[in-house]
């Protein structure tokens, strides 16, 4: 008799929580000795060209003021029952210019206080070392990751983090959505050369520098924090053939491989043949040293983490290329799916497909570190208490978590799940606060007005129950 049940069960010790990024929540953009980052000259996200200098309309200068309110926010995370909180360290808080020889103690002390608060509430930190926050000086002086010199600056930064926090943090991610550098070279890679002037060789050389730096970070972690687990982080977006035409099927495979290559290199320690062929066909010759090859091969990751928001289609027929929107990546619209207010197609089954595909391909533990719905929330009063009745968010997360449970039942080894923007934050793609993801509403608007008061949404209690029951409430 089979022991397979109809209701997926999340494993004991599964890590439930939420995720944010420093530049989208902290504010205090020049406090505590912090230097400018590339985000400080991106007042409109990736949607319009960057500014020459910080501007007063950049919501990220204050964001949601996590820098001053972290204790209050972490207490709310604990109230929901978080077992893990993913956050990033702002590189320019630690090395304001990025190329200094000594770190900024005020910046280090701030993250000590954040870790103290997490420990007080029994929440595990999951730290992203670089989350779209390259110091602006490194972009302007060195052209960001297009320069091999950034590997040395990143190494100094990483050694500082592991020396200071290595005994306190178990889970680390080297770069956020590392594959996004192909689509957003300034935001993802701090590459100052305008995208339309950037050669393919320089772009892929920057990719190589980041991959080598990621492997070097893994090596350093094993020296300085041997109990730590080091993961890569990729943006996942399953690609479906628009039709059963074999050419469409192969086109979907080819597009999918532009993302899969990054995981392949992190997990297997070498460039896959299909990736090398693609470089050759684009006329790209990379400068790869024997030391680079050794670092990649000998320092593969312990787990693979990823974001998931939507899927796309692919076709070779130019007349059928109805382009939709996605998280940095556009793609052919799937006619069978509905979309969010920002045009991102909603595909819960795609998350199960991604989990199975990654597990089958890499046989490494997985971690979903971003998933969520950006929506326009309305603050209302229910029984005299301000809240947001966000049934649409609950339905989105419910549908996706049901598919996560199915993937676990399929045999996928999954460490945990952190929803993106567990508290409202400034959107990376649009730099809006009105594009809200959180379980916690923050009273701040796109024009900068608002009290910054925090309010629990309806989804707050829903997620707390999911966590309390370790996912059992999803099947009720």
From TrEMBL:
<dbReference type="InterPro" id="IPR001360">
    <property type="entry name" value="Glyco_hydro_1"/>
</dbReference>
<keyword id="KW-0326">Glycosidase</keyword>
<dbReference type="InterPro" id="IPR017853">
    <property type="entry name" value="GH"/>
</dbReference>
<keyword id="KW-0378">Hydrolase</keyword>
<dbReference type="InterPro" id="IPR018120">
    <property type="entry name" value="Glyco_hydro_1_AS"/>
</dbReference>
<dbReference type="Pfam" id="PF00232">
    <property type="entry name" value="Glyco_hydro_1"/>
</dbReference>
<protein>
    <submittedName>
        <fullName>6-phospho-beta-glucosidase</fullName>
    </submittedName>
</protein>
<comment type="similarity">
    <text>Belongs to the glycosyl hydrolase 1 family.</text>
</comment>
<dbReference type="InterPro" id="IPR033132">
    <property type="entry name" value="GH_1_N_CS"/>
</dbReference>
<feature type="active site" description="Nucleophile">
    <location>
        <position position="370"/>
    </location>
</feature>
């Amino acid at each position: 008799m089979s022991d397979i049940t109809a209701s997926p069960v999340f494993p004991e010790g599964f890590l439930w929580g939420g995720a944010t990024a420093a530049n989208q929540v902290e504010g205090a953009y020049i406090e505590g000795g912090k230097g400018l980052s590339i985000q400080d000259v991106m007042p409109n996200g990736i949607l319009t060209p960057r500014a020459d200098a910080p501007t007063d309309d950049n919501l990220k200068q204050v964001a949601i003021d996590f820098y001053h309110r972290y204790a209050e926010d972490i207490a709310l995370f604990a109230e929901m029952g978080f077992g893990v909180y993913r956050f990033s360290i702002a590189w320019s808080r630690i090395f304001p210019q990025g190329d200094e020889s000594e770190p900024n103690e005020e910046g280090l002390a701030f993250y000590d206080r954040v870790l103290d608060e997490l420990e007080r509430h029994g929440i595990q930190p999951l730290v992203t070392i670089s989350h779209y926050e390259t110091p602006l000086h490194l972009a302007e002086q060195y052209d960001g990751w297009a320069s091999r010199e950034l590997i040395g600056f990143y190494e100094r930064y990483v050694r500082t983090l592991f020396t200071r926090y290595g005994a306190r943090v178990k889970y680390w991610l080297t770069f956020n959505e590392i594959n996004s550098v192909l689509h957003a070279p300034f935001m993802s890679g701090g590459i100052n050369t305008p995208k339309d002037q950037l050669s393919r060789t320089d772009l892929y050389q920057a990719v190589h520098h980041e991959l080598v730096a990621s492997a070097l970070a893994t090596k350093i972690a094993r020296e300085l924090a041997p109990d730590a687990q080091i993961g890569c982080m990729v943006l996942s977006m399953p690609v479906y053939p628009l039709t059963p035409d074999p050419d469409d099927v192969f086109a979907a495979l080819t597009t999918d491989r532009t993302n899969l290559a990054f995981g392949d290199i992190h997990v297997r320690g070498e460039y896959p043949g299909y990736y090398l062929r693609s470089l050759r066909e684009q006329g790209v010759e990379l400068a790869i040293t024997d030391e680079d090859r050794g670092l990649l091969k000998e320092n593969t990751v312990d787990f693979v983490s990823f974001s998931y928001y939507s899927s796309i289609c692919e076709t070779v027929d130019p007349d059928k290329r109805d382009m939709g929107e996605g998280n940095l990546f556009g793609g052919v619209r799937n006619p069978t799916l509905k979309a969010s207010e920002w045009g991102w197609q909603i595909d819960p089954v795609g998350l199960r497909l991604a989990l199975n595909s990654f597990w089958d391909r890499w046989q490494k533990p997985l971690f979903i570190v971003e998933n969520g719905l950006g929506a326009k929330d309305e603050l209302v009063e229910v029984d005299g208490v301000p809240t947001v009745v966000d049934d649409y968010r609950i339905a989105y997360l419910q549908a996706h978590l049901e598919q996560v449970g199915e993937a676990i039942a399929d045999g996928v080894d999954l460490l945990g799940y952190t929803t993106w923007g567990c508290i409202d934050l400034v959107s990376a793609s649009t730099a809006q606060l009105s594009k809200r993801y959180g379980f916690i509403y923050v009273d701040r608007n796109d024009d900068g007005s608002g009290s910054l008061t925090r309010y629990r949404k309806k989804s707050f209690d829903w997620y707390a129950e999911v966590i309390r029951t370790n996912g059992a409430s999803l099947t009720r």
